[in-house]
Amino acid sequence: MITLTIIEDNPSYQKTLLDIIDLATDLTCLGSFEAATPCLKALETGTMEKPDILLLDLNLPGENGLEMLPLLKKETPE
After folding, report:
1. Where does residue 36 rank: exposed (0-12), middle (13-18), buried (19+ CB within 10 A)?
2. Is the separation of the CB atoms in 34 and 69 below 8 Å?
3. What 8-state DSSP symbol labels residue 68?
4. Mean pLDDT, to the nearest integer, of 12-25?
5. pLDDT-derived band of residue 69, with 50, 70 and 90 as boundaries?
6. Cα separation of 31 and 68, whole Å?
7. Whose CA is closest to 54, among 74, 63, 45, 62?
8. Which strand (E) or helix (H) includes residue 55?
9. How many angstroms from the chain centroid is the CA of residue 59?
10. Which of 38, 24, 61 shows the shortest CA–CA distance to 6?
11. Strand pairing of 59-60 and 53-56?
12. Strand 59-60 and strand 2-7: pairing?
């Protein structure tokens, strides 16, 4: 089973991604977030398991996905 986490601020696009993941038999979504900071906190505190794949919107309001990427990678280096 491949695990994913989604960081996407557009609710419609986020729902579409979740719907597609639900259709796949070998994918499961561990969490979906509208911003990178809550995801980062969940990873840091261990309240969410580390995903195999992180789908990250690069144009988040108030946060730049590219700037958050090194912080997220530090929590999930593998």
Report:
1. buried
2. no
3. H
4. 96
5. confident
6. 17
7. 74
8. strand 53-56
9. 14
10. 38
11. unpaired
12. unpaired
Q: Which amino acid would we find at residue 7?
A: I
Residue 9: per-residue pLDDT: 95
Three-class SS state of 78: coil
Query: In the prediction, which pLDDT does 66 show?
Result: 85
The token duo for 11 is: 């609710």
pTM over 0.70: yes
HSE of 4, CA atoms in CB hemisphere, 13 A: 18
Residue with tokens 């070998």: 26
Residue 69, exposed/middle/buried by CB under 10 A (0-12, 13-18, 19+)? Answer: middle
* Radius of gyration from C-alpha coordinates of the chain: 12
